[in-house]
Write a structure and sequence with these properties.
Layout lengths: L1 H12 L20 E2 L5 E6 L6 E5 L6 E2 L1 E2 L4 E5 L6 E9 L2 E3 L7 E4 L2 E8 L15 E9 L4 E9 L13 E5 L8 H4 L3 H10 L7 E5 L30 H4 L1 H11 L9 E6 L1 H12 L6 E5 L15 H14 L4 E7 L5 H13 L5 E5 L5 H11 L6
Helix pairs in contact: 6-7
Length: 385
């Protein structure tokens, strides 16, 4: 029964999207969603055999119910949407499916969703007609693991036009279940950097996005392991394993790129697990980074335990070193509904108790890419000034 249901639902959705050779290049006359001038999104789905079609997206708290016309086209329009990148999936007769009328998709761990962008104040998420930096997938050897590992490296526009100019470096770390592709794809980092550098809102910089999963060498499906189901559990490693090996990444970058190698030209930031990595790496090596960003940070995360820690525990981990050698910028950002708020509240208490200067951005929402892209956009203009 389950197999019949799955087939009938997919047949309904894919009525006009048969992947036979003769159908390559057919115009299906539908593209989702259509963005109206007043910033609403209209969805249309040709599924004449379906009995119920919903759109479940991060642009509203409940699914959007579509209505069917006599031609079998289901449609509905959202309320006015704020400028943002939104993700969604269709739910056809109870089965979540990707939208065959939108070719634009993002993978987040094992989930794949379609996306669209409402232009406006956050239009730096879109590629503009500006000079573009380059994104490279770079393999480096990790002596501590004995393996070759991969990272993503952004070099700004103009980097290849000179053989002498040196640049500051920003190390940007992903969260649990992510990989070296996360910030460039889900985070739109290269577009944000291109646009903010072109406008003068950010300094030209090299941005290094390593794979923070200490036991993995690269993103899922791009290693000798072949194709497997991505999982957040693959991010787990021994305490401090990634942090202890981080200087290998710095050494490689400094020896293969034209970098400025002093503290005032080096920054580190990360989201969730990567925020925890950034917290520990910066406090274990306070001489290396003058700019630190903690985005929904799992500061204090130990194994599978996500619990607030007391001041003594935090200080015993080495925070006194960074208290005695504070960076030029220590930035914390988190959403009001984020499940890691208790850890961040405790961290802020420790900082306040020690009169440690930091900036704090409290936003709406929870543990979501929408917030992390915003924190990156707020963080970049403050670097290397």
């Amino acid at each position: 029964m389950k197999r019949k249901l799955t087939f009938s639902v997919l047949a309904a959705v894919m009525t006009v999207t048969v992947f036979a050779q003769q159908n390559v290049g057919i115009n299906y006359n539908l593209f989702n969603p259509e963005i109206t001038a007043d910033k609403k999104a209209t969805f249309k789905v040709l599924a004449p055999q379906a009995e119920n079609v919903l759109v479940w997206g991060d642009f509203q708290t409940t699914p959007l119910q579509l209505q069917k016309d006599t031609a079998g086209v289901w449609s509905a329009t959202t309320d006015v949407l704020a400028s943002e990148l939104y993700t969604y999936r269709l739910i056809v007769d109870g089965l979540p499916v990707n939208d065959p009328f939108n070719p634009y998709q993002l993978r987040d761990i094992a989930g794949v969703a379609n996306y669209f962008i409402i232009d406006g104040e956050k239009n730096h998420y879109l590629p503009h007609d500006v000079k573009h930096g380059n994104i490279s997938k770079v393999w480096y050897h990790s002596p501590s693991s004995g393996k070759d590992r991969r990272m993503t490296v952004y070099t700004p526009a103009g980097y290849d036009d000179s053989d002498s100019k040196r640049y500051p470096v920003f190390y940007l770390l992903h969260g649990m279940g992510g990989d070296e592709n996360a910030w460039s794809e889900l985070g739109r980092a290269s577009y944000i950097l291109d646009n903010m550098i072109a406008s003068g809102d950010a300094e030209p910089m090299i941005v290094v996005m390593p794979n923070g999963n200490a036991n993995e060498v690269a993103a899922p499906g791009e290693t000798p392991e072949g194709l497997y189901l991505p999982s957040g559990s693959r991010s787990r490693s021994s305490d401090n394993q990634f942090e202890a090996s981080f200087k290998e990444i710095i050494d490689y970058v400094d020896s293969h790129y034209r970098t400025l190698t002093d503290r005032k030209h080096r920054a580190i930031a990360g989201l969730s697990m990567g925020g925890g990595h950034s917290w520990r790496i910066s406090m274990q090596n306070p001489e290396l980074f003058d700019y630190v960003g903690l985005f929904s940070a799992a500061a204090g995360w130990r194994g599978s335990d996500i619990t607030p820690m007391d001041n003594e525990h935090l200080l015993s981990e080495g925070m006194m070193g960074i208290f005695n050698n504070p960076p030029a910028l220590y930035c914390i950002g988190i959403g009001k509904d984020d499940f890691l708020m208790p850890l961040n509240d405790q961290l802020r208490k420790v900082l306040d108790d020690n009169n440690f200067k930091y900036t704090y951005h409290l936003s709406d929402g929870g543990h979501i890419w929408r917030n992390w892209r915003d924190y990156l956009s707020l963080f970049l203009p403050q670097l290397f000034k």
